[in-house]
Amino acid sequence: MATFLSTILLPVAVGAVAIVLLLGLVNMMRGGSPNRSQTLMRWRVLLQFVAIVITMLAVWALGR
């Protein structure tokens, strides 16, 4: 389980955070909708939380 978390699930979660962050930056640079920026920021925060939880689970599983 630790291997799955640290080698597959964690990079996917971090990649999702990076994609949403880049989408938000592109939206701001183009002068896009503020509502879309807020939505992307909320998604980024949620995905960061998920990535942190996965990281902590992987650390816990590796320590067992």
UniProtKB/TrEMBL annotation:
It comes from the Bacteria. The chain crosses the membrane at residues 6-25, 45-63. InterPro entries: Hypoxia_induced_domain. Keywords: Membrane, Transmembrane, Transmembrane helix, Ubiquinone. The keyword Disulfide bond does not apply. Pfam families: HIG_1_N. Residues 1-64 form the HIG1 domain. NCBIfam families: twin_helix (NF033233). This is NADH:ubiquinone oxidoreductase subunit 6 (Subunit J). It comes from Rhodopseudomonas rhenobacensis.
